[in-house]
Amino acid sequence: xxxxxxxxxxxxxxxxxxxxxxxxxxxxxxxxxxxxxxxxxxxxxxxxxxxxxxxxxxxxxxxxxxxxxx
Length: 70
What we know:
Layout (H helix, E strand, L loop, with lengths): L3 E7 L3 H12 L6 E8 L5 H5 L7 E6 L8
Parallel strand pairs: 1-2, 2-3
């Protein structure tokens, strides 16, 4: 299990989400997982997140906007 879990929740942030993901993946500390959540975006954010695939990335997609804790 990774020592650190980074959770990135996205809702309609297509212009910014790639930079956020790249920033996490560029960290020098390597013992982490990145949990990506598309929270029902309607602006193309999901397509941006589709570009990222790596063993340390876990992805969850909601069909509609949910509360953050879901």
